[in-house]
# Entry
Amino acid sequence: MATTLPGRSVGKRRTAVVPILVVSMLLALSACGSSSGSTNAGSGGSATDIAIAYSQPIDYQVAKIAVDRGYFRKNGLNVTLKSATTGAQILALVASDQIQFGQMNQQIILNAYKKGTDVRFCPMGSQLQRTPDTASIAAITVASTGIKSAADLKDKTIAVNALATAYTDVTQEMLDRNGVDPNSVKIVVVPFNLMLQALKQGRVQAAVVQSPYLGQALDGGATVVDYPTNYLAEDTLWTSCFVLASYAKAHPDIVKKYAAAMKDAVAYANKNPVDAAKLAATAASVPFVKNNRYPVWVDHVEASSLQNWVDLMNKYQNAGLKIDAASMIVGQ
# Structure
């Protein structure tokens, strides 16, 4: 049974997990106009107005880099950034045309597609690194639990930041691959910034946490149990940019300009990962930690990555999802 702390049931895993929001909106977002208009771009002439969202984890800071370093303006786009707290919030903003582009975990985008939102993937994403010194998502614990590996998690309570998401799927895959029946554990919802506290208070015995909160937890005494995302196929992206299919069809030129700006930002972020991490820490309102972990940002999306997520969703959520992965990618 999956629950939110302190114990409210939200449904059974594998069969009918109900997605929930674990945090409220950071700020009230007002509707912005369609990108078909233009605004003065200074000496460079006019630029097309668009709005895009970015969120707290390090993966999502490339858009901020593209704005700060002028890559959007270079490609004829005038961008308004909207800060968001969850993938569900970003999705809602795109679906309502308050923003034109967003970035979030590929599985969330596919879940939205399954539920009827006609989304498309566009170039730019992040791929998680896999070594102990670089992995940016980890299952953590504290010494008092006595847990040494994923094999010790049978019958334990594990925190994730949201249910029916990639975090639950990769957690269950990690358990399965280590001989633990995923149905033997209880998965509960705890916000990233409260996971270390929940561990120390004994409310959970393990938690799946992402940078920049991972670095904070390790500095606060947590230890790593395993790296759930290491059980994904190596060509799997964690996040991608996305856009409504109707918008991509009506504005293919803007999609290409967006992709070009993000490609420049990806090149900068990979060359200057500490700058990207500092942006992430600022967005998440946490202190910058030098030993934080960074993803590898990429300027393309592969169909195989989408299919890998579909396979996990069908395995752990009984999603019954079938897609033509290649047809869901635009702008590259």
User: Anything to note?
Assistant: The CA atoms of residues 39 and 47 lie 6 Å apart. DSSP finds eleven helices and 14 strands in the chain. The first helix runs from residue 62 to 68.
